[in-house]
Amino acid sequence: MQKPVRTLFMRGGTSRGPFFLESDLPSETAARDRVLLAAMGSPDRRQIDGLGGAHPLTSKAGIVRLGTAPGVDLDFLFAQLQPNQDTVDTTANCGNMLAAVVPFALECGLIAAQGDETTVRVLTRNTGMQCDITVQTPLTPSGRQVSYEGQARIDGVPGTSAPITINFLDTAGSVCSGLLPTGRVLDRVHVEPPVGADFAPFDIDVTCIDNGMPLVLFRAEDLGRTGQESPAELNADTDLKARIEALRLTTAELMGLGDVGGRNYPKMTLVSAPQAGGAISTRSFIPHVCHEAIGVLAAVTVGTACVLDGSVPHALAQLPSGARKAVSIEHPSGEFTVELELDPQDTQKVVRAALLRTARLIMRGEVMVPQSVWPTTGADGESAR
Questions:
Q1: Matching fold, domains 2-163+359-373 and 187-353
Q2: What is the fold of 2-163+359-373?
Q3: Rounded to an integer, what distance in angstroms lies between the CA atom of residue 266 and that of residue 214?
Q4: pLDDT (tens digit, 0 to 9) for every residue of the chain, 385 residues total?
């Protein structure tokens, strides 16, 4: 016996995964998580028995419902799963999957198109962050529909697609207590190796920041790297990864995040001088695997750190002038441009962050999960068997 669960399988930015209506999943958190794990095929390194793609970027899911707060059209809950773990983390955001929320809601009939463009206010339930998302909804013989075809291009995704713009309304302190959770733009951190580690204690300058995603930024050269290594090289660098994880656990305490041994944040970002005309070059760990590109909210946060005088990346960054800056974040597979607007009265304060993404509906249908993972009583209070 298997249980069918309605889903749309969607790409959002450089991530992908199944999207669900909240009403189609169990209402109880533990039962919901069992269903998500079964749908994705976790825990299993290859996720051979589910929809997962054997990588953190393709082990994600989205849950959507109509907005419940005044002025909010849609509520979105992002779920990060791992290929070889039985965890479902809903504490952090994902700006890439966020790009698919409005197309999903339009495809499901949860909301209606407004015109050639449809702008929807979305609340990310993970952290309470709000944003306005605009998608293309041209008139067709069948009525207004989401357009996935266009000339917008994002690095990390082949071809071009219709543009989706995301205007973040308030991202500072998404998980932490504020933009600079340690209260400083620069910290000198002492890192002790864990028992059995094969490296000596070290001191390193870091910037701990959260403008949509908790990040720890540090110079690649401070750990003996150039910052231009490929993700494959960095993923094979066991010494570097061990030191980065020790640094992550240490800085998390300073950021007020406590023990993050089982968490997917803070993300760890190596920075170096730009090499291809951008503002800064990055290598982002998420947090134990080097990203082939960079996450949306990580890019927003890196860009924010670049404009803060005294931060680790500020000394390396090549920034345009003016209060509104297009900050190009270089990453292993290209670049990611974030538009930041500074407060004219306080150039250390970012008042707006906007960016361009794309999305695509890949498949619609039902994902089958074992009946045994579904609760005897469903979300509507009736027997689910």
A1: yes
A2: Diaminopimelate Epimerase; Chain A, domain 1 (3.10.310)
A3: 5
A4: 899 999 999 999 999 999 999 999 999 999 999 999 999 999 999 999 999 999 999 999 999 999 999 999 999 999 999 999 999 999 988 999 999 999 999 999 999 999 999 999 999 999 899 999 999 999 999 999 999 999 998 988 999 999 999 998 878 888 999 999 999 999 999 999 999 899 999 999 999 999 989 999 999 999 999 999 999 999 999 999 999 999 999 999 999 999 999 898 999 999 999 999 999 999 999 999 999 999 999 999 999 999 999 999 999 999 988 888 889 999 999 999 998 988 888 877 788 888 999 999 999 999 999 999 999 864 444 444 3
Structure tokens at 324: 């509104």
Q: Phi and psi dihedrals of 329, rounded to 5?
A: -100, 110
Those residues whose C-beta lies under 8 Å from the C-beta of residue 5, and which sit 6 or more positions away, are 20, 24, 25, 35, 39, 366, 367, 368, 369
CA neighbours within 13 Å on the CB side: how many for 97? 27
For the whole model, what pTM was predicted? 0.76
**End-to-end CA, the chain:** 10
| Domain segments of the chain as ranges | 2-163+359-373, 187-353
CATH code that applies to domain 187-353: 3.10.310.10
